[in-house]
Fold each of these.
Amino acid sequence: MPLIPWPANYLLGNPGMDNTHAEFAALVNSLAVAEGREFQALFLALLDHTGDHFGAEEALMADTAFPSLEEHRAEHRRMLGDLRALGQRAVQGRITLAHNYVTEHLPAWFAVHAATMDSALAAHLALHENQVVNAAR
Ligand SMILES: [Fe+2]
């Protein structure tokens, strides 16, 4: 069974967020079974992807005046900081910590983050889109 079974309960109804999360889940699932150089390369790809993924969500939050932007961004920064520190070790060949983090921490983190902060953002974006549509009528 993959570490992050997709889509399971993860779909938020926002196609952009759901597509990004599908890619994130696929990367995490590939990392779970990767070793050595393949693991290093995939971990760096995850780091890149996560930077873009969080950046895209933060841009949506800023564009639509999402009330919990600061809290959500702080959580993204904390997670990216962890991934960067682990990535630095991984490129030096020390992949054990990064591997443990991927298998023991990331799936649970994603489950909670998607169900709470990201789901609140998706609901806010849907509301915002309706307001824009109604205002245009
Ligand atoms: Fe998020």
Note: The chain has a mean pLDDT of 96.
Amino acid sequence: MISVQNLERRYARRRVDALRGVSFEVEAGQRFGIVGESGSGKSTLVRLLAALDRPTAGTVSFRGQRIDHLPERKLRFLRRELQIVFQDPMGSLDPRMRVRDIVSEPLGRRSPARVAELLTAVGLPEDAAMRYPHQFSGGQRQRISIARALAPNPSVLVADEPVSALDVTVRAQILDLLNRLVDEFSLTLVFVSHDLGVVRRVCDRVAVMRRGEIVEMGDVEQVYGAPQHEYTRELLAAAPNLPAELARLQGGTDA
Ligand SMILES: Nc1ncnc2c1ncn2[C@@H]1O[C@H](COP(=O)(O)OP(=O)(O)O)[C@@H](O)[C@H]1O
Ligand SMILES: [Mg+2]
């Protein structure tokens, strides 16, 4: 579905090499996690996957087609097929628009039936359609962004720190929702987080990023259960929920 080869992104003005030789593939139906601390290049990578930015070197392909240097008019398919959910729904939802219009905007037309269907899918009441973003809680606003992302029936959902602004209980609910939607809509998921526990909950494969490089990549069970890279071990050791997670991976009972 997605193939990235030797991707480099240098922010010349600040002389930052945000991505250095990043390569990976995401197969259809996969739940691909990208984990790494703040500043490791995750959001830079997301922008390149979505062709919102151009690489300094390397390639990004979507279903076998290079997208890294296509002009905007040739990216219309990608603007439907790949949707992004961001960390901060308040920043990505227009406060002056009703939920109805926010959710149907990517469709380019009004469709009350489709809006109702999407709101139901993300667990919001149908009367949410007439309300405005500020009338909802943080978790509900993230549900609105997810509904909007699903509107054009994408094949790939990219989520960049989608639960990092939410508190623990709500976070679990949104992760469960994402899990359910990925199945229900047969999505391919690219899930970005600085939080290993969160990635563990939704992903089957994971790439660990550090200073613009992927230092380790593999099945979640393998990377979390038997990390090969020193940095992955450090990240795991710093994860607050590590004992319970590790016990489960290693076949023990939940603490
Ligand atoms: N638009 C930009 N201009 C200059 N530097 C940037 C820009 N975006 C990100 N960076 C720098 O690139 C590095 C990676 O940032 P980012 O991709 O946002 O990391 P992450 O999402 O993992 O926190 C950081 O050093 C950041 O300061
Ligand atoms: Mg980021």
Note: The mean pLDDT is 92.
Amino acid sequence: MDMDIREGTLTPETFAGLRAACGMPELEPALIERAISSSLAVFSAVAGSRTVGMARLVGDGAFVFLLCDLLVVPLWRRRGIGSLLVETVVGRAKTFMPSGRAVVVSLFSASGREGFYTRLGFTELPATGLGAGMQMFCL
Ligand SMILES: CC(C)(COP(=O)(O)OP(=O)(O)OC[C@H]1O[C@@H](n2cnc3c(N)ncnc32)[C@H](O)[C@@H]1OP(=O)(O)O)[C@@H](O)C(=O)NCCC(=O)NCCS
């Protein structure tokens, strides 16, 4: 498979296109631009001239690291691109920490996708000593 993972090249337009291709609702361009510029790292999976996937690492670069917006367009799925993007994001998170210090990368799994992440080394919450992940929607 002729495909590269690149960092820092994803445009807001391509991000929006990947979201649309994955059936996700449209977002205002200004929000997409802010999401990219505020990320610790943004990765694209590029096959030829086409961007077929992406993932972002967001956080404070110290204690909080979140893997988000893992997207692979339908025709390119089940070829290992999603897994490679996850591994790339985790590897990038490690670069923020001094040698020998562990980094904790969190994520919110899509419903039913938990097994994909546990096979890549993530622990499903709640787990021993750790409660459930929680969130609040605020208007
Ligand atoms: C989730 C998502 C990113 C996975 O991307 P992907 O490129 O298909 O991921 P991979 O190819 O690495 O792995 C997907 C599955 O294909 C399998 N696979 C990988 N290479 C394969 C191959 N060559 N032949 C057959 N199966 C293969 C993997 O084992 C994995 O199986 P699993 O789901 O049972 O764990 C993609 O389905 C997607 O974009 N979904 C919509 C958006 C979404 O839900 N994002 C995640 C939000 S949490």
Note: Residues 2 and 54 are 16 Å apart (CA to CA).
